Amino acid sequence: HVQLVESGGGSVQAGGSLSLSCTTSGYTYSRYCMAWLRQSPGKEHEGVTSIDSDGNTNYSDSVKGRSTVSRDNARNTVSLQLNSLKIDDTGIYFCATVITDGYWGQGTQVTVS
To answer: Which end of the chain has fewer beta carbons closer than 10 Å to its terminal beta carbon, N or C?
Structure first.
């Protein structure tokens, strides 16, 4: 069955960096677009970035210029590098994909102070 497991979150001071990773299994990873979403306190889920099967990327305005998404099709992983972190970046970060249904992991907490 499809599984997505995020890791790499933590607590960091504003201006710092974090690298998030998502390990997937149970489907043909290389064929599908991957996305990172986040849920900040008191806010709806927000799409942060996506990377399609060809490596084309999109970023939300909130992280554009401060983040880099990448994928490793050999390892079935997707990563998100977050730089120049702001307090508003605090939230739970989820990786997600849509196959026949939407799938996402349990999330990893990012706290910026």
So the answer is: N
SS3 31: helix
Contact (CB, 8 A) for 94 and 6: yes
The full DSSP string for 38-97 is EE-TTS-EEEEEEE-TT--EEE-TTTTTTEEEEEETTTTEEEEEE-S--GGG-EEEEEEE
The Cα–Cα gap between 44 and 47 comes to: 10
Do 41 and 33 meet the contact criterion of CB atoms below 8 Å apart? no
- For 35, residues 6+ apart whose C-beta sits below 8 A from its C-beta are 47, 48, 49, 50, 51, 95, 96, 97
Token pair, residue 101, equals 């249904």
Q: Under a CB-based contact definition with an 8 Å cutoff, are residues 107 and 21 in contact?
A: no
